[in-house]
Design a protein that fits this description.
It is built from 3 helices and 5 strands, in the order H-E-E-E-H-E-E-H. It has 136 residues and is of the alpha+beta class. It has a 5-stranded antiparallel sheet. The chain binds guanosine-5'-monophosphate and zinc ion.
């Protein structure tokens, strides 16, 4: 994708603050961090989102997440981590090149990543299970 900024960053055409790099991924610091140490895992090949990235690479992204988080917890140090991956504008995706957010959490950081729990109604449960089972 010639006009994709994350393709250019992942492949080193645009400089970035790189924490880690391997054959398939580059891990960079987010320019608009939710908290101190917020990083992004970018595959070097272009995939729009989770539905697009091959299973094998998606699995490797989880291994990269684990490696980076294990190093960053004591290095920062932070108290926890959110691993977040947005798909589609309604879910907050703004760059349409698959990426995984690694967001360090600090006691009382008020980063606003968590949600207010609702209630699972009987009607929703029946409808969702019926439709999801049929689709899988
Ligand atoms: P999304 O909203 O698509 O899940 O996440 C996009 C993320 O990319 C945002 O957290 C935003 O701050 C970050 N971002 C956007 N453009 C750039 C950039 O040019 N460089 C870096 N390092 N981060 C970027
Ligand atoms: Zn791209």
């Amino acid at each position: 994708m010639s006009d994709c900024i994350f393709c250019k960053i992942a492949n080193g055409e645009i400089p970035s603050s790189t924490l880690y790099e391997d054959e398939n991924f580059r891990v960079i610091l987010d320019l608009g961090p939710a908290t101190k140490g917020h990083a992004l895992i970018l595959p070097k090949a272009h995939y729009a989102d989770l539905t697009d990235i091959p299973d094998e690479l998606a699995g490797k992204a989880v291994s990269v997440a684990k490696k980076v988080v294990k190093a960053m917890i004591p290095a920062l140090p932070c108290d926890g981590y959110n691993v977040v991956q947005n798909n589609g504008p309604a879910a907050g995706q703004t760059v349409f090149h698959y990426h995984v957010h690694l967001i360090p959490r600090y006691e009382n950081d008020h980063a606003g990543i968590l949600w207010k729990p609702g209630t699972l109604s009987d009607e929703d449960r029946e409808e969702i299970l019926k439709k999801a089972s049929a689709a899988l």
